[in-house]
Design a protein that fits this description.
The complex is a heterodimer. By secondary structure, chain A is mainly alpha-helical. Chain A has 9 helices and 2 strands; from the N terminus they run H-H-H-H-H-H-H-E-H-H-E. Chain B has no helices and no strands. The radius of gyration of chain B is 7 Å and the shape is flat. Classes of the chains: A mainly alpha, B little secondary structure.
């Protein structure tokens, strides 16, 4: 654990809490993409399945449970409790265009199988390489789901950014949410540089997806600094 | 260390 990872996690937590509080206090989820929030709930669910199989630290377990809980609470508020305020007409990004390619990519490019090995898996050539069945401890399935979550997280904010570009504005509090979410990614990039130099740790899948994700926020960061700091709303 | 099945980050 280094300071960049810790502040990155806390920034991520801040973003999630800001969004929950905004919806709760204003009794409204206007301007919030429910689709992005469903994707984030899916990201946390598929990534933190290892809660069931491996223990890393109390901090790690606690944060995972909080992230999952908050993600589902947000989805509940948007689609159930404050459904009447949900702006579905402007939340028109086709989420399946993200989930399906990302799902395919996570089978093809992951830490457990090369595409050729994956071909052998689906052809069931090697029993040892079977994803499921007797003798399997689910680790390959978890690994593919982890990869899926990493890829999906990198693009999960797109419905939200699409919604903002469609309506042409965002409330200040929504921009704070996006700022902390982007800050978390930027801090994680520094964390990976740190870990590479001091621990020799290097996770190419996480790093490439993290770079993509951070790039998606760059345009928003620019607007945030130049507009939101000086005015009430984010005009585009 | 090339990360494989044990992921310690959030």
């Amino acid at each position: 654990m280094n300071i960049f990872r810790l502040t990155g996690d806390l920034s991520h937590l801040a973003a999630i809490i800001i969004l929950l509080l905004k919806i709760w206090k204003t009794r409204s989820c206007a301007g919030i993409s429910g689709k992005s929030q469903i994707l984030f709930a899916l990201v946390f669910t598929t990534r933190y399945l290892d809660l069931l199989t491996s223990y890393i630290s109390l901090y790690n377990t606690f944060m995972k449970v909080v992230y999952i809980g908050c993600a589902y609470a947000t989805v509940y508020l948007i689609y159930m409790k404050f459904k009447a305020t949900y702006d579905g007409n402007h939340d028109t990004f086709r989420a399946e265009f993200l989930v399906v390619p990302v799902g395919g990519l996570s089978f093809l490019v992951n830490h457990d199988f090369t595409p050729l090995e994956f071909l052998l898996v689906i052809m069931y050539v090697s029993y040892d390489m079977a994803l499921c069945g007797p003798g399997s401890n689910c680790s390959h399935c978890f690994q593919i789901l982890w990869t899926f979550s990493i890829y999906l997280e990198s693009v999960a904010i797109l419905p939200q950014l699409f919604m903002i570009s469609k309506t042409g504005e965002a409330e200040t509090i929504t921009t704070h949410y996006l700022f902390f979410l982007g800050l978390y990614r930027a801090l994680y990039l520094i964390n990976w540089i740190w870990r590479f130099y001091f621990e020799g740790f290097f996770d190419l899948i996480a790093i490439v997806a993290g770079v993509v994700q951070t790039i998606l926020y760059c345009d928003f960061f620019y607007l945030y600094v130049t507009k939101v700091v000086y005015s009430e709303r984010l005009p585009l | 260390i090339i990360a494989r099945t044990r992921h310690d980050e959030l």
